[in-house]
Amino acid sequence: MKTYKTYKDLYDYIEIDKNTNRHSHYRKGVLTIAMMMLEPIISSKPDSPLPTSWDVLKDDLLNGADNFRQYAFTGNPYAYDEDIAKLLLSPSLYKRWNGGHYIPGHQKAQDMTFLDMQYFAIRRAFNVIKQIYKILNAKQRRVHIYLPCNLKNPEIV
């Protein structure tokens, strides 16, 4: 029985989170990007343990890129507007977009390109991976027990 956490465990946590119905289409797209970032690592190192340092994991996830922006703009996840739109826009927004450059929403969203939108989604995917990484590498988990105020002898509990 293994006692360490692997990249596959990280992938499985994200996949479970993605398959819940409580997320928006954009959030599911972010989780899909997070899973896509982990797939090459899993295929090259199937049972290797997670690194102890976040910087090492970040370097593995960037896949040779220097930073998030370079990773997003060099075509690692998606290079075409159509693919990014299908991944991140809800079906109704995708229908309104219809292959043009119009993104419904506030002014900032209208000034963004789809590569910019993908960049922000990649940043959020990194944050998701980082949160789950911290959970998997937690040395000690705290359990909060709330006792009623009128409990006279807390040692019984």
Account of the protein in words:
By secondary structure, this protein is mostly helical. It is 57% helix and 0% strand. The protein is built from eight helices and no strands.
Provide a short characterization of the protein structure.
This protein is 57% helix and 0% strand. It is mainly alpha-helical and 157 residues long.
Helix and strand succession?
HHHHHHHH
Radius of gyration, whole Å: 20 Å
N/C terminus separation: 34 Å
Mean pLDDT: 78
> Which bin fits the share of residues in helices?
55-70%
Structural class from helices and strands?
mainly alpha
Tertiary shape: globular
Main attributes?
mainly alpha, 157 residues, 57% helix, globular
Give the topology.
Blueprint: H1 7-18, H2 25-44, H3 54-62, H4 68-73, H5 81-88, H6 91-97, H7 107-111, H8 114-136
Helix pairs in contact: 1-2, 2-8, 5-8
